[in-house]
Each structure stands twice: as C-alpha cells, then as structure tokens.
Amino acid sequence: VTLAYNKDPSPVKLNLGVGAYRTEEGKPLVLNVVRRVEQQLVNDPARNKEYLPITGVADFNKLSAQLIFGADSPAIREGRVTTVQCLSGTGSLRVGGEFLAKHYHQRTIYLPKPTWGNHPKVFTLAGLTVQTYRYYAPATRGLDFQGLIEDLGAAPSGSVILLHACAHNPTGVDPTPEQWEEIRKLIRSKALLPFFDSAYQGFASGSLDKDAQPVRSFVADGGELLMAQSYAKNMGLYGERVGALSIVCKSADVASKVESQLKLVIRPMYSNPPIHGATIVATVLKDRDLFNEWTNELKGMADRIISMRQQLFDAIRARGTPGDWSHIIKQIGMFTFTGLNSEQVSFMTKEYHIYMTSDGRISMAGLSSKTVPHLADAIHAAVTKAV
Amino acid sequence: MAIRNSLSGQLLRRSSAVSGARFISSWFRSIEPAPKDPILGVTEAFLADQSPNKVNVGVGAYRDDNGKPVVLECVREAERRIAGSQFMEYLPIGGSVKMVEESLKLAYGENSEFIKDKRIGAVQALSGTGACRIFAAFQHRFHPTSQIYIPVPTWANHHNIWRDAGVPMKTFRYYHPESRGLDFSGLMEDIKNAPDGSFFLLHACAHNPTGVDPSEEQWREISSLIKVKGHFPFFDMAYQGFASGDPERDAKAIRIFLEDGHLIGLAQSYAKNMGLYGQRVGCLSVLCEDEKQAVAVKSQLQLLARPMYSNPPVHGALIVSTVLGDPELKNLWLKEVKVMADRIIGMRATLRENLEKLGSPLPWQHITNQIGMFCYSGLTPEQVDRMTNEFHIYMTRNGRISMAGLNTGNVGYVANAIHEITKSA
C-alpha cells in the first residue's frame, strides 16, 4: 500500500495503510523521553556493545513483566514468570510458538478471524497448526461474541488460543470487561492455553493499567499463559525491534526450566537479542521521572487517535452518509475496520487518493484534523455512489 | 506428589474468588532443564567466579590489553551523528539498503561486477547467526531433501541452526589433531565423495574454533574441486579484517571462488570486526545467475524473515552504513580493525614464546600458525576442566582459547597454567 502511495503525485493523497503512529503534521514521532535517553546513552563512555545474554537485558525483562502483569502481580512475586527479550512482538510470538511446538503436547493454535496478517505465518513456520475462531461480526462491525464462545468451546482441550490483549488488529474491536470474564472462565474450564499478543498497551485507552486488565485477570486466576509484548508503538521504537516474551508458569521451578528451554530456541535463531532498544526501554521504565514523562506522551498519542475517531465520526454524520458509523468511535486503538468493501476501497484510492488495505482497515494514526474532511468526503462518495 | 497437590490446592483456594479456574497442573511440568550453551555458558560461569586471578578466554569477544571491551572510535562517532536525529521507523523486511550495499562492496569487492550487474540477492540479517539461520531456512524450503556439510569441528551453534531449520547435517574432515593444522587430503576426499550438488559450509577466514585456514593454494584447489562436483559453497565470514588486519586479504577465499564462477551464499557479521556484538548486525547474500533471479531470491529471503522478526533492528545497521559510507570514518575503521588484529597476532607470539621459555615438551607452533580470534590449544576436556578448577581460566571444553581474552597482564599466568597441566602429558 505504501509503495503505491509513494508513487502517487496527488497533493491530497492520504496514507491510511501504515500501522505506525503519525503526528498531526503527518510525521513519524520519536518520543522526547526516547530522544533524551538516547543522548544519555551516547554520552556515557561506560556503555559497551557486548553480547547480551541469550535472554537479553535482565532489567528490561523484569520491568517488562511488571509493566504488563502489574508490579504487585502474585505470579511475579512467586517467581513463576520467565521473561526473555525478543525482537518486538513478531519475535516474541515466533519464539513462543517454537517453544510450544517443541515442548507442548497440543500443537494447534487458534487465531481470531480476522487477525494481523503475519500471525498465521509466524505460527506455521514455528511448527504449529493454525485454526481460527470467530471474532469479527461484519453485520455489527463489532464482536461476534456468540461465535467466539462457540468456537473456543469446541476447541480440543489444551489448544493454544491467541488473544489480542487490547486494540485488536485489524478490527479495533475488543471484548468488554464482562465478555473478557466469560472468555477467561471458558478458557480455564476447557484447559485451553492462552497466548496474549500485546502490541498496544497504553496506546489503546491511554492508560497502561486499563489496557492490561484482561491479561491481569487471567494471571489472577493462577493459570498459565504466554505473553508477547511489543514496544514498537507505545514507545515508538518500531525499528529497534524491542519486545518480550513472558511465560507464566505454575511454579518457579517450572519457570526456570522453561527459561532454559527458551534459550535453546533463541540461540539457533539469532544467538542473543539487540541491545539498543531494550536499553532505552529499561532506562525509561526504571526512572520515576522518565516513566511519568513517557506515560504523558503515550496518553498524548492515544488521545490524538481517540480525537481522530470522534472527528471522523462527526464528519461522516454531518454529511448524512447512510449507515451506522458508530463503530468508528466504539472500536479502539490504531485501526478502524470501516466495513467498506474492496470495490469501495478501490474507488476511494482512484478518485480520492486514499490508500488503505483492501479489507477496509484504516490507520487512524494516519489522519489529522486537516485530512478528516477529505476522508469523510471519500467515504461518503464511495458509499452513496453504489458500484 | 502430595506436597505439590496441596500447594496447588492452596493456590486454588486463594484464587477461588476469581471463579472458573479449574485445577490444572502445569502444562510444562515435564520440561527438562536445558543444558547450558557450551560457549555462552562459559561466560556465565566466569562471571560467577570470585577469584581475582580469573581469566575468560571463552567467548569470542575482543578485549583490549586491559581486558576491557572496546567500542571503536569510528562507531562512537557514528553514534554521535545518529543519536536522537533519526526516526526509528521500521526498516524494510530486507533491512537497510545502504548497509547491505556497503556490506556487499566489502565482501565482493568495491568494484565487483556482480554488484554492478545486480546479481546478488541480499538482506540485512541478525548478525552471523541470523544470516546462517535464514539461509538454512531458505535451503530447507527450496532444497528440502538436501543436507549441509559442515567441517569438523565447527562453531557449535552451526549444528543448532541447521537442525532447527530442519536440514540434516553431514560432516567433512577439516582439523588435523596431530599437526594441529588442516587435514587437507581428508577435506578434499570428503568433498569428492559427497554426492554432486551438495551444500558445503565453509569458514571464509579465521576458522572457528581451530584458527586453521587453508592456504591460498589450497583454497584454489578446494574451489576447483567444488566446481567439478557442482557443490554449493556457503561461506560464513565472521572475521573479515579481524584475521589478518586487512579486509581485502581476509576475503581472498571468497574472491577465488567468485573468479572461478561459483554462485556462492555468504553470511557476514559485524559483531567482531566493528565491535557491534550486541547490536546484531549482519548480512546474508546469495549470488545468482542474473538480476531477475536475485530479485526473486531476495523476495524469498524476506518471506522467511517476516515470520521470524518482521524486519531487522535499525540501530546497528545505521552505525555500519554511517561508518562504511563515510570515507573518513571508513579509514578510521580500517586502522582500528588492524590494531585489534595486530594485538591478537602479538598475543599469539607472546603465548607461544612463554610456553617455549617454560620448557614445555609439547610443540606450540600452531599457536602462531593459526589465525584469528581463536587458538585450538590441543587441551583435552579434562585438561580444560583443570584449567578452570585449579587456575580459574575459562574456555570451552574443546580446548579453544579466545586470544582476545589474553593480554600482557595475564598471558604469563595462562602460559604457566597450560604448562603445569600439560608438562606431564
């Protein structure tokens, strides 16, 4: 999508394909707190570039677990969590997947329909078999909760279930807290193994703790789970490839054995993870002031996205575009599943120079107050000029 | 059994406030603790040792004469230029185009016709390990019945990489224990006996762990024979510049193969020669028949990288492309690489001298005959254990010594330890 966008000479072109945050001015953003820490690191003569241990930066791992599970998490206190630094979300999913393929008795993972385009390949190449469970309801542009419960209920005991921790990609549709509770009860009663993908903690609602609630409720019931964390979006560290895989186990003894086996997966893949990004994250997380500055900047990004949703919704309503567009403000996170079909999308690209994926997904981060009207016009035209 | 059940029972009672958690014992209960990595585990043990005399000659990471890790000046300068001024957006799946371009020039030659003709399909990789792994996965996907021939011995992780990629391994003779040199006739025989069109893993220079490299003449013969047999040569080059001090010279084997018309595969690493260990920067390249093929190959390599890590880390790549892309910084790098290589070469001479001065009954020319970071000392695993237990000297159990861990302060101590342990051997 980006390639086509780049080629387009139109001055009004809009790139709503890329899943990376953009400012009101349409520019990528390096967080102030990250810039500061980078300068700090560069000016510190005591820093070196030695190999990290296979599991990565120890501080980073500890702090990442605390960030997602909560500093007071009983699982952490009891030493039941093993965390290894990985290459962003993708790397964490792949290492977790390969670990399961080697050591877990059930080699099937259930992915929501739809899910991030790369999920199926990650798990297939890791050695797992991929199945799906119903998730998105096109009719309501919301959650197909009934279908989800039915499909998870029918999954063989022990199956691995991939769950988007918050801000589902690509739909932006998340279960409500009540629905999450039902999902949790079902998963535990069927002895299914949850594998969370958390790429947007703090980015969805603006609150790190709120976005982590579903995950924490699963940890609170004492069960096991896998967790893939990414700092690509919420700390803007995209290209540095910073993430962590945590496995919450039943006991500290098991956690330690699991960690030793994770090393055997990592070593033949890339030996040990890259140092730069994880050092930045650890520095931010462990310093009170930097952490606070980060949460403010994070909330700023989340708020801008939420504001774009509201503005787009208002603009579409103002034009009297037929249909219910409330999903734009109900969905959460970087993406909106508009419900537009591929013909409508092509039309918008051709006539209005709007670039988005053909499934109707738009990246809210690519919008600004200035460009919302243009998008609203395009949507209105696409919907009313029926092909 | 009873204890675990009651503990789990307590957990269940504690969590009964959150309903629905059926009692399940751990899914991972039967997982065995994995053995420590034979190389990286050495450093772990070293760090835990409290002895003031301890010496780490285990992992292949350069140390200066004070035993300290080194960040090259050219790298520091490159970092100053990039810090805080770059966006951290995703690189393309194939990585930094600039870094890959510079890497190809370094390996294939500044004016290589293959670069001009765009015949090389190449991607940024996670250092040497990552480059090997992507290639192994590529080999598995497109030549699913093939095997990889690896030298005996080779870097321990090579086994793991091809195994996890699903490619079975065969071996070819390489190290000659009696002479502590190259088993050239064994090597040639094994190349000859392998079925036509086999995949061969070759260390481009500074063989790890032995430090034993073929001579230029021997490389020419190896190249000829491999050509006759139609084998695929895959080079792992982790030490370009680090072996002799001259990157051009260290690339000689590759250049010979290129002259002979081989279509090679190549894994490059900047861990040692640019001191970028923890940044994980490398490059995987495959020389193809034409541009069209190179484009196809690159796209397939990307298809393998995407489900592994999506796109490679940007920071290290920026450092490499900044250093290699700026003539002044590149010159500085060449000087610094030579300093590192020269220090190692100097340590080899000193270690050998010390052992000979101590009156060791054993031959030690191999210390100075071998090249690169490592010396295959000839110590047995039991002798290695004694080195560790009695002298707090840490090395891998195959007797491999990382020369970079030696310095004027400890070389005497190490020579003495080796002598003590081997004098009655």
UniProtKB/TrEMBL annotation, chain A:
Transmembrane segments: none annotated. Its EC number is 2.6.1.1. PROSITE patterns: AA_TRANSFER_CLASS_1. Its cofactor is pyridoxal 5'-phosphate. It catalyses: L-aspartate + 2-oxoglutarate = oxaloacetate + L-glutamate. Keywords: Aminotransferase, Pyridoxal phosphate, Transferase. Residues 13-379 form the Aminotransferase class I/classII large domain. It is an enzyme of class 2 (transferase). InterPro entries: Aminotransferase_I/II_large, Asp_trans, NHTrfase_class1_PyrdxlP-BS, PyrdxlP-dep_Trfase, PyrdxlP-dep_Trfase_major, PyrdxlP-dep_Trfase_small. NCBIfam families: PRK09257.1. Belongs to the class-I pyridoxal-phosphate-dependent aminotransferase family. In eukaryotes there are cytoplasmic, mitochondrial and chloroplastic isozymes. Homodimer. This is Aspartate aminotransferase.
From TrEMBL, chain B:
One of its GO terms (molecular function) is L-aspartate:2-oxoglutarate aminotransferase activity. It comes from the Eukaryota. The keyword Transferase applies. It is an enzyme of class 2 (transferase). Gene3D superfamilies: Aspartate Aminotransferase, domain 1, Type I PLP-dependent aspartate aminotransferase-like (Major domain). Its cofactor is pyridoxal 5'-phosphate. InterPro entries: Aminotransferase_I/II_large, Asp_trans, NHTrfase_class1_PyrdxlP-BS, PyrdxlP-dep_Trfase, PyrdxlP-dep_Trfase_major, PyrdxlP-dep_Trfase_small. Its EC number is 2.6.1.1. CDD domains: AAT_like. The keyword Transferase applies. Pfam families: Aminotran_1_2 (PF00155). Keywords: Aminotransferase, Pyridoxal phosphate, Transferase. In eukaryotes there are cytoplasmic, mitochondrial and chloroplastic isozymes. Homodimer. Belongs to the class-I pyridoxal-phosphate-dependent aminotransferase family. This is Aspartate aminotransferase. It comes from Stylosanthes scabra. The gene is ASP1_2.
